[in-house]
DNA sequence: GGGTGCATGTAATGGGTTACATGATTCT
DNA sequence: AGAATCATGTAACCCATTACATGCACCC
């Protein structure tokens, strides 16, 4: 059995397990849920929901509203739930690496050391901020969603972020030190 | 000043600082250089080289060969070098996160624990293997390229990989333990 | 009067992979 | 005999972002 539609459609199915939602709702929910490791734009969400409805994986209901445009609320069907489960079981497809910071650092010898230092510093600050965000989310989740059977999985993804960001902050510090050493050596002659 | 062409063209310019190369050469060199954090396909490389030549950032020379097709060897021009430096100075553009493993783990409650365990295990093994590869490359680099002014930068990118992979292996182990705990708790009732 | 939020959607554009097409040589 | 290596390139396709288009209501 082949599963077309790729990860985007399945991400939407996953989010719709939480509650029936419109495309607008979904977009708004992402930063509070899978936002740390996944993103979707309206340009993907609306057409994808349409396709999911056409293939019977979600059901569409229109709610009329006064003043505001109609809301198109989508809810998961049994077929949709089954499709999601099938997709979850498939092995994770390896992602092609593309890390612009490392590319620039790799060629860092062609510009001044200050350039690399700035890139690394910005990167470090990003991850320091991320660490704070993760801590805040974990705290909130443990309070608000205590007992939810999904909570352990959510905490695992948060833990991933913490491990990674902590390691990358450490790397950043070491790298900044190494850049300073290079500078000293360059001046010494 | 705007720089079009994006990261791909600049990655090619960067690689061409090492030596003049054909598209084929470049593709072959990637796994031994920037392969851990960057990838390019022929479908990108050949058209990009063409465009770089049209805009005067690289120079094309054709070497005829017997039996084999002509080699089109590209070398960096002064303009190309300047362009690369300009690009290196630009802030790193933040990449949109897309991490399929975490997406699947986030929705892990919808399938059996074994599914998540398998995904995490595969991920862990990937990074354990990566750690060995990084160590081997670092050793080789320190021997073969001792004294090269670019060496420190190359080691920094390798160090990045080591820090990250080590952290992710640690996370994997903890997560597998957490999954085991969940299993025990589920059985206890 | 103007920004922000609600709410939908499409079109243009960019960026990328994969498959296809070609063809001689060399290794197994 | 058949696979792998050398070597180039294009076309079809997929996926995704951004900008555009619409329009009311509410708040300052």
Report what the structure shows.
The structure is a homodimer of 189-residue chains. With 189 residues, the first copy, chain A, is mainly alpha-helical. The first copy, chain A, has seven helices and two strands. Chain A has helices at residues 6-16, 23-29, 42-54, 78-89, 100-106, 113-144, 151-187, and strands at 58-63, 71-76. The model of chain A has no long low-confidence stretch (mean pLDDT 93). At the A-B interface, helix 1, helix 4, helix 5, helix 6 and helix 7 of A face helix 1, helix 4, helix 5, helix 6 and helix 7 of B. Chain A binds a DNA duplex (28 and 28 nucleotides) through helix 3.
Q: Determine the fraction of residues in helical runs of chain A and give it as a percent range.
A: 55-70%
Which strand order do you get reading across the main beta sheet of chain A?
1-2
Estimate the mean pLDDT confidence of chain A. 93
Number of strands of chain A: 2
Largest interface: A-B, 65 and 65 residues
What are the SSEs and their pairings?
Two copies of one chain form a homodimer.
Chain A: H1 6-16, H2 23-29, H3 42-54, E1 58-63, E2 71-76, H4 78-89, H5 100-106, H6 113-144, H7 151-187
Chain A binds a DNA duplex (28 and 28 nucleotides) through α3.
Give the gist of this structure.
By secondary structure, chain A is mainly alpha-helical. Chain A has helices spanning 6-16, 23-29, 42-54, 78-89, 100-106, 113-144, 151-187, and strands at 58-63, 71-76.
Which key features would you list for this structure?
7 helices; DNA-binding; 189 residues; homodimer; 2 strands
């Amino acid at each position: 059995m082949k599963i077309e539609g790729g990860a985007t459609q399945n991400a939407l199915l996953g989010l719709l397990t939480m509650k029936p939602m419109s495309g607008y709702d979904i977009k708004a929910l992402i930063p509070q849920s899978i936002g740390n490791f996944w993103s979707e734009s309206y340009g993907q969400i609306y057409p994808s929901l349409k396709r999911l409805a056409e293939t019977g994986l979600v059901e569409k209901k229109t709610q009329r509203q006064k003043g505001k445009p109609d809301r198109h609320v989508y809810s998961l069907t049994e077929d949709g739930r089954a499709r999601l489960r099938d997709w979850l079981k498939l092995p994770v497809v390896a992602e092609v690496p593309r890390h612009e910071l490392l590319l620039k650092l790799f060629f860092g010898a062609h510009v001044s050391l200050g350039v690399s230092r700035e890139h690394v510093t910005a990167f470090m600050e990003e991850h320091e901020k991320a660490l704070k965000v993760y801590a805040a989310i974990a705290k909130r989740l443990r309070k608000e969603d205590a007992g939810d059977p999904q909570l352990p999985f959510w905490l695992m993804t948060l833990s991933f972020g913490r491990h990674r960001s902590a390691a990358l902050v450490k790397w950043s510090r070491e790298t900044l030190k190494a850049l300073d050493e290079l500078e000293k050596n360059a001046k010494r002659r």
